[in-house]
Design a protein that fits this description.
The chain has 29 helices and no strands. Helix 2 crosses helix 5, helix 2 crosses helix 8 and helix 10 packs antiparallel against helix 11. The longest helix is centred in the middle third of the chain and has 35 residues. It starts with 6 loop residues before the first helix and ends with a helix. The relative contact order is 0.10. The C terminus is likely disordered.
Length: about 625
């Protein structure tokens, strides 16, 4: 929990964070600096900020900064300052050849220790423990058997791989992503938050789905999906939209745990939703070399199916329990939405620039500039000096956790790659799976879920793909499906019991039991656990292939989603008995298996059946609407 400071301490820390945000904007508009300078300055501000903003223990003061934390913040300045000041000399040294100096050894050790403590405070203790385990591995590896063996690593070499190189470690490429792309999109997300764009998403969702059965739950799904893509933090998204949607769901009859679970599942899925997808998409683009736009397009169809399944499940639940929608008086008018629609211009600009071929960096710059200009359209969103200060301070505070998580993940990547542990684990996975893809996918899914339960999704994805990626690639899996597979489960770990922070946040708002809410969210997000397996075997789900292949796959998967939603909610036009539920679940499973076989999907008979099924559903839906209109006229 972040400190709530007041007085001169609040102004001093606020000024520190504002300066960081200004630095990020300056380099965004005038050019990125050399790696050590950019990343060093990034951590120069954020590593000390962790000690100033986050208390050491639950008993530590939360309204002021104790002298011990001030001392730690000052010490945290020294390692990045050395990297910045000695940039030219460090660029000229031969890595792992030139000896490390005594000051470098001391500062590198200090940086490692302080980063571990900062991660424990600002991210999660589990991540600090995980990094410590990997560091400890370096000392015990010479006595380990088989693939886990590694020759003795001198302490000076450990410090060098973590502190002085720029391809991995604390100042490696992962931190580079945080210091460039991610920082800029964090600022963009803060702009969206302060200009009340999230409220516009909620109003729009309310207008589109509020009157239908279970309207509040659909509002939660739609608004959380729209806002979650920008915010990039599931727990924050739950609090941003759930404080409105969860009480509304409860007031119309939804069970408490179901209300909290809907918000948790929808908020978590926001990080799978283009165009922003949290910080993970930028890290993925950096690691794989796959263009960001291609990653976004590849994730589009899967995210649509995920949210379609959520809408269907809340709709069927509402029909089964005879829940009504919102009254007309509770729904904002189209005129109100139209008057505030200018708030969507930055997001539209972002997507236009991305699809025109500009880099995410340029697109984010353009979106931030448009946000600033459009804020003057209304007085209550106008960027006054006070609001600009609050925006920059909020942006800096939001960067702390992400930057430290990326730096910590960089430490693990450095250890895994320099020791050959990744190749060793890959051989273990290959051996345990017998060289078959499906068992290997199950093992990597479990690894991603376990890591994701205790870590934020981005470092969980980075560590899991570093460990499991080589195994998938060695079995013939393409780069993008392999990375998206791990990315999906690193995110879905947030709603996988027993550790599911977004579900716990939803439970806190709903007043339900956390673990029960977690299991409910897990059940709602079932489709998300199936989609990765489909796109590993069938790349049409990643928008790769002919238009006919993509459309056919989408239709069959949509039918599977409908049957799965009916089976899980025990409703399909009417309440179902156990046999009918089991039948629908079996049909959904069969259709999903068919989707993993491109050869079957491409058969003309299968395509014809898929299109006939869509036509039948469309005709039935049309007749149902016409019947409803006649009943309304008769009344």
């Amino acid at each position: 929990m972040m400190r709530k400071l007041s007085g001169w301490q609040s102004r001093a820390v606020g000024g520190w964070l504002v300066t960081l945000s200004l630095f990020q904007l300056y380099t965004a508009f005038f050019g990125i600096m050399q790696p050590r300078l950019q990343r060093g300055t990034h951590l120069l501000f954020l590593l000390p900020a962790a000690f100033l903003l986050f208390p050491a223990t639950k008993k530590s003061p939360r309204d002021r900064i104790p002298l011990t934390d001030v001392a730690l913040a000052i010490l945290a300045l020294l390692p990045p300052l050395y990297v910045i000041a000695c940039n030219d000399a460090l660029n000229l040294r031969l890595e792992f050849v030139d000896p490390i100096t005594t000051p470098e050894l001391i500062l590198g050790t200090l940086n490692i220790v302080l980063l571990l403590e900062a991660v424990r405070r600002a991210v999660v203790p589990a991540m600090a423990i995980l990094i410590s385990i990997f560091v400890g591995y370096l000392f015990i590896a010479p006595w380990l058997p088989g693939v886990f063996y590694c020759k003795p690593t001198p302490f000076a070499e450990i410090v060098e791989m973590q502190y002085l190189i720029t391809d991995a470690g604390i100042f490696g490429t992962i931190t580079g992503v945080s210091a460039t792309f991610v920082a800029l999109f964090v600022i963009f997300g803060a702009v969206m938050e302060l200009t009340k764009t999230g409220q516009l998403f909620t109003d729009l969702a309310c207008r589109l789905a509020g009157k239908s059965p279970g309207g509040p739950a659909k509002i939660a799904v739609i608004s959380s999906g729209l806002f979650g893509s920008i915010s990039g933090v599931a727990a924050a998204n739950v609090y941003a939209t759930g404080t409105f949607t969860i009480p509304l769901m409860k007031s119309l009859g939804y069970r408490r745990r179901f209300a909290g679970a809907v918000e948790a599942a929808a908020s978590t899925g926001g990080m799978l939703m283009p165009p922003v997808m949290g910080a993970g998409a930028f890290v993925m683009a950096e690691i794989t070399g796959v263009p960001y736009l291609r990653i976004v397009l590849a994730a589009l169809l899967g995210s649509i199916l995920f949210y379609t399944s959520l809408v269907l499940k809340v709709h069927f639940t509402a029909l089964r329990e005879n829940m009504r929608g919102l009254d007309d008086a509770d729904i904002v008018s189209f005129g109100h939405i139209a008057r505030n629609s200018y708030l969507m211009l930055p997001l539209i600009m972002l997507m236009v620039l991305l699809f025109r071929g500009f880099s995410p960096y340029v697109a984010a710059n353009g979106a931030i500039a448009i946000s600033f200009l459009t804020s003057f359209f209304k007085k209550d969103t106008m960027m006054t000096p006070g609001r600009i200060w609050a925006l920059l301070e909020l942006s800096g505070a939001n960067m702390v956790m992400i930057a430290l998580a990326c730096a910590g993940a960089g430490m693990v990547v450095s250890i895994v790659t320099h020791t050959g542990l990744a190749l060793g684990i890959a051989s273990v996975i290959t051996g345990w799976s017998g060289g078959h893809m499906f068992p290997a996918l199950l093992l990597i899914m479990v690894t991603s879920l376990i890591l994701g339960m205790g870590l934020p999704c981005t470092p969980a994805y980075i560590i899991a793909i570093t460990i499991g990626g080589p195994a998938l690639l060695s079995m013939g899996c393409d780069v993008l499906p392999a990375h998206l597979f791990v990315f999906y489960f690193a995110i879905l770990a947030g709603i996988t019991p027993p550790v599911c922070v977004p579900a716990y946040c939803g439970a806190a708002i709903a007043g339900s039991k956390p673990l029960q809410t977690g299991f409910e969210a897990f059940r709602l997000a079932t489709v998300g656990f199936l989609i990765p397996y489909v796109f590993v075997y069938n790349h049409a789900l990643l928008m790769q292939g002919s238009a006919m292949e993509i459309i056919t796959l989408a239709i069959i998967l949509l039918m599977a989603v409908v049957f799965l939603a009916g089976g899980l909610t025990s409703y399909m036009g009417r309440e179902l008995n156990p046999f009918e539920r089991a039948l629908l679940l079996c049909i959904a499973a069969g259709l999903t298996v068919i989707c993993t076989r491109p050869g079957i999907i491409n058969l003309m008979a299968v395509r014809g059946a898929a299109f006939l099924a869509v036509m039948a559903l469309a005709i039935r839906f049309t007749l149902k609407i016409q019947k409803g209109k006649k009943l309304v006229k008769a009344n």
